[in-house]
Amino acid sequence: MKQDPVPAPTSVWRDQRAIALLLAASLTVMANATISPALAGLEAAFSDAPHAEILTRLLVPAPSLSVVLCAPLAGMFADRFGRRRMLLIGVILFIITGSAGLYLPSLPAIFASRLALGVAVALIMTAGTALIGDYFTGNQRSDLVGLQVSARNFGGFLFISLAGYMAAISPRLPFAIYGLAAFFLPLMWVAISEPVRSAPRTKMQGNKGHRAWKWLILTLALLQMLTNMLFFVIPTQLPFFFKVQGYNSAVMTGSALGALMLTGGCTALLYARMKRTIGFYGNYSLGYTMLALGFMLIGCGVKPWIIFAGAAAIGAGYAMVSPNFVAIALNLAPERHRGLVGGMLTTSIFLGQFLSPWLSTPAIAAFGYSETFYGISLLLGVLALATALVGGRELIRRLLPATG
């Protein structure tokens, strides 16, 4: 049932809807990496199962494949049947499918549950993005998209750390972490209401979106896919890089990813203020510069502290550019197509993640780790320069006082 819109408080922290959407955002980071610490134990537990080695490794990327396939459809359904229902269904499905590894009897059954988990993530992310556009405007929207990235980073740090301890007790125990979503569901049920959308004939001019919004959103989604494809090289290739360098792979990878998530979470808290100061293009340029610096430092691989500094720079850079995609897309898209746009953005994120190891692994085999990281750094540097040139006028207008 649709309800009258609730006026948004001055601060998003005082708005229950914002808190509910941040909790939803923190869930999506669980989808892939939470069970990573349990993979070796699961492989041993199901060693007698056919194809256990490959199925175990596919448990991590399996949700991404489902998201890529389902998110566009989820976006169309959100526009047609409503966002609130889709979000709540997604969270309930997330709880059921995410925790299924606790009790399912076979590895193929667990793999199937991971595919179903991807459907839940597609519903949650698509509905969440559309609801941000429906509920919030201006600075509040910028605040919230930055806080979403922060929630994912801090949530990832907490959930993956917790999973590491639980996997040491039992390889099935990390699946229980997905059940934490049950504690978030009551607030979502109460706080999230279906926004009232204007009828087509009574739409105000401001709700129609940019006249070229389809092409602009497609371009934005492709850039987001490329960004996530490059960023995801770190969690997928860093463990093997450390092994080649002669370090303790498990300890170093955990420490590097911890540094990445913490700096990303802290930087994302500043996103709205930075956007108001230097604009979207300024955030892109600075963020891509930080990403390029991070890959260059890791490519050096001389000392552990340099690698950790590189990981921290990558986390900060990604936190600067990632919220931009959602904020810009919601500004461009018509009100009635925000679900579709949310689905496109969700698809581009997970498609980039899914493609990343397929493209980076052959490059590493051909050129080596350091050379591949340097190449990625160069590409990110080009993106930083391009966004700086395109947004130069806007940046100057914001940094210099108006004259005449």
TrEMBL record:
Residues 17-395 form the Major facilitator superfamily (MFS) profile domain. Keywords: Cell membrane, Membrane, Transmembrane, Transmembrane helix, Transport. It comes from the Bacteria. It is found in: Cell membrane. GO terms for molecular function: transmembrane transporter activity. Pfam families: MFS_1. GO terms for cellular component: plasma membrane. It is a multi-pass membrane protein. Its main location: membrane. The chain crosses the membrane at residues 56-74, 86-104, 116-137, 149-169, 175-192, 213-234, 246-271, 278-299, 305-333, 340-360, 372-391. PROSITE patterns: MFS, SUGAR_TRANSPORT_1. PANTHER family: INTEGRAL MEMBRANE TRANSPORT PROTEIN (PTHR23517:SF3), RESISTANCE PROTEIN MDTM, PUTATIVE-RELATED-RELATED (PTHR23517). This is MFS transporter. It comes from Serratia oryzae.
